[in-house]
Amino acid sequence: MPSRFMLTPKAIRAIVFSGITILLLLTWPAYKYSSLPDHITIDIANSQTIDITHPVPPDATIAFEKPSGLRVIALIFYGRADRVRTLHCYLQRNLPEQGGWVDEVHFVQDTDNEDDLAYLRTLAASNPRYKLLDIDPLRAKEDKFSANWELLERDAIYVKIDDDLVFIADDTIPRLVYRKFHHPEYLALSANIISSPLMSKVQYDNDAYFPYLPAHNSSSATAFLEQGRVRDQSATRWRHTHYPGWKGPSNYSIDAALPTTGLSPIWLRLSEARDIERTPIRDLVYDTWGPGCTSWSVAAQSHMSLLEQLLHGTTSIYYNNMTDIWTTDYRRLSINFVAIDSNEVLSHLPIGADLCDEEWLTVNLPKRIGKHIAVETRALASHFSFFFQRAVEYTDILDRYADFANDVVSLQPRRYGVPILRNGGSNVTQEPSVTNGSRIFGSSDIS
Questions:
Q1: Mind telling me which residue stretches traverse the membrane in this protein (predicted)?
Q2: Does domain 51-203+323-409 have CATH number 3.90.550.10?
């Protein structure tokens, strides 16, 4: 009499099929990238190294081939020179001369500060690909947002970039443009922004953040807040390893509603991963108007975490376990860094005096025409701060980003006649650490 546990031929076939399926799923990524090293190492001028994980796969160049005849224009609403001095480095890096996709950079004036305007004029004159646009003041008074977007030229893909973008991965603009060109079902494609109201929570759930707090009982805090800016930018270094670890009471913690009074400008790393529960980032929620938009301390911790991920070469953590596309389901999304089709936007103007361009582009218009707004999760960029987070200016983080740009990313600073400047205004004269337009922050291809 056969055992009741005997397997039938049908059961055996099912087990074998399941086993093969599981084996393929487990080994497919390894098979696809089996010829690649686990990491590549970029040597920099001071003899330190940065490991860049997840190098560009062999077929990425083909996947990101720029469509013939396509014009790509970066649109910058300009207001603050101290931010754009860092952004300028990334704009240069994305020009065709450096292997980038940006054919032109258009600056739209959004300030009356004469010092900021002087830098803008110098910047616009420094490169034949840079262009300063003029807005009709009467039209701007009637409908400022429509006046801005009416400056678009037809038959181009625009990448609208806020002037306080302080980090842009090398493959971010190609990814956004590629996706928008080949997938017109999306009205706009956003980068996966570090320090973003919605995406910060998604990144937090992906374990992308490290425990940081302001230095405890810093004697420099009062003087720093009175000055409103770190004075010795030359002493600022982007690596957290240049600074001591955080020391203070074991029960000390702060939340996202942290005030600025009496705090140190220097954020330091806590030693234990579990200390994340003592830091502001724990208060994040997936909300357009949540702490990711309103809390300066959440912004500060977001930036410090990104700089550490860059040091370790582990920026893939911002999109691991995620689909390539994250749709917002008509929630309002910040348009700090988005790719759009100029013909499509121009055909639906004006915006109307009762709406801002962000609400119009990410909620109102998509609903009306039946399209979606999506985040390209592998396209990384970092946005410095929103209006409600202005206190992050009173840290040294902006200077850390400038140091990173000069230390790792910068092209020849004087290539187009405008040096990369630190926030204090002193020229950076050292030779760049990475030259020849090396594409150092690539990741896998998209379909």
A1: 12-31
A2: yes
